Fold each of these.
Amino acid sequence: MKNRKVLIGIVLLLMMIAIGGIVTYYVYNNMYYVSTDDSTIQGDLIKATPQISGKLVEINIDDGDYVQKNQIIARQDMGNLPDTSLDSSIIRAPISGIVLKKSGTVGEVLSQGQQIAIMVNPSNLYVNANIEETKARKIKPGQVVDITVDEYGDKQFKGKVKSIGKYANSDLALIPTSTSGTFTKVVQKIPVKISFETTNCELLPGTNAIVKIHIK
C-alpha cells in the first residue's frame, strides 16, 4: 500500500513537472516571439509588355528562363511603321530575373501593354507573413526573424521585419463581406513583409514558410 502511494506520488509529480514545462514553454514563446505558419515566399511580379499593337513574329523565352534587363525577348511585325521605329516592335525584358510564365504565342496579335510574360527578380524575394491582429502590435521594423521554408525542411534562414501592413487582408478581399444574416467575428490577419538576410539557395515564389519573429 505504501509503495502504491509512493508510485502515485511520483506519477503526479512527473505530471506536474511536464505540465509546468509545457506552460513555461508557451509563456516563454508568447513573451519573446510571434510565430505563424501562414506565410509564403513572394516577389514583386513584373510584366513584360509590347510598346505597340501588332502580330507577334518571334518569342525566344520560356518558363524558367533567366534573362538580363533590356534583353530582347520577342519581336512584333512592324506593319506600316517606318524603319526608324524598329525599336518599337522589339519587346525587351523589363528587369533581370526569371520568367515565371510566358503567355505570348507566335502569330498572336498583341495589344499595346498586353502581358506576354511575367517575371520576378530572384534576389529580391521576401516572406509575406499573415499575423493575427492581436499580435501585430508587438511587431516592429528591424526585428530579427527565424524562417524555415517547407521546401528545405529544417534548414533555417535569417531575416528581418521590413514593413507592417496598415490594413487587414480581408479589406482587400475580392468577395465582399456579407452584410446580411448572422455575424461571426473572426480574428483578422495583418500582412508583414520580411526580407531575407542571405539565402544561398534557390527559393520559389508561392512556397510555404514558417516565421518566428523575435519581439524581445
Amino acid sequence: MRAWVQTDFGGPEVRRQIDVAAPPAAPDEVIIRVLAVALNRLDVLQRTAPVIPSMSVPHIAGMDMVGQVELASSDADSPAVGAVVLVDPVVSCGSCDYCLADTPTYCAEFATLGSTRSGGMAELVAVPARNCTVVPVDPDDTARLAELAAVPVAGVTAWRGLLSAGSLTANETVVIPGAGSGLGAAGVQIALSRGARVITLVSGEAKRERALASGAHEVIDRTATPDWVAEVLRLTAGRGADMVWDHVGGDFLGAALRATRPGGRVVLSGTTAGLDTQLHLPDLYQPGRNILGHGSYGRADMAAAIEAFTSGDFRVVIDSVWEFDELPAAERKLESNDFFGKIVVLGPPRSPDPK
C-alpha cells in the first residue's frame, strides 16, 4: 500500500511516499481504507523532533481520519465491511478503571493513532473496532468527508474544553484565542451553537475578517491591539468574560485570568505557547477566579460532538483540501500559519490489484 513514512526527524525530506506492507489487524480491530485525514500541529512537531516520548521512526502520521471499512473484526460491535466510519485516535485497553470511567488517556496502555501508532497518512490503517463511529456519508462526497475528518481532535477537544469541562451556557461571554487555528475555529462554532457571546483573538486583518464572517461577535486583532485584556474589559463594560478558553498555555494563562470576571473561570486545554508560566496569585484568589484543567476527553465527548456535527448543531471550518500526493504542500501551508480552519488531505486512490 502507499503511505507517507517518516524515517528520521527534521524537515519535509524525512517523510517520503513509499510502498509498504498493509497492516495486519488484531481480533478486535478493523482495517479501514482512508478517505480523508485532517492535519494537526502535532504532525509537524513530531516530524521535526521526538516530542512524544514513545513515538519512534519509521512512522506513519495522521491522527484525524475518516475511512471505509475494508476488513471487519470478529468483534460483535464491529462496523460492517463498506461502512464509512469516523475514527477516535485515542487507543486504550478498554477494561481498566480509567477506561471504564471514560478517561482513556489515563490508561496505562494509552496510545494515539498517528502519534504512537501508525496513522492515516496511508491507504490502509488498523484501528480498534470500538474506536469507530459509523457516519451517514457517501464515500465519494469529498467535501463532507473533509468536514468529518476535521471533527475528532479539534472538535472533540473544543467540545471537552468548552462544554464538558467549562460548562459554557447560553448568554455567557467566552474569549477564544486563535480563531484561525483548527482548534480555535471549532471552538468558536461550538460556543455559537450554545448561544454564547464569542470574543475571539486573531493576528492580522485578513483573519479578523474571516473570524467575523464565521460568526464571532467581536474579534480582536492582536497585531493592532496588543493589550487584548483591556479590549475584552472594554467590550464587557469592565466586567470581564465569564470564561476564557485557553488552548494556548504559556504566558497567555496569566492574561486570561485578568480578562475573566470575578468568580469566572479559565479552562486550560493546551500548551502550544509554552509548558510553563508565572501567575500573579492575587489575580486568582482575590476575585475568586478559577482555573480548570481540561482533563481527559472520553467516548461520551466524542459521541456527543459527532452527533452535534452530523445533526447540524455546529459546523467545522475548512481552510483547504489537498490530494494525497500533495501532503508536503499541505504541511507547508500548516507551518506557514497562513490558514484559517482545518487543512485536510484526501486518501490515496486505490492501488491496482497485483496481477
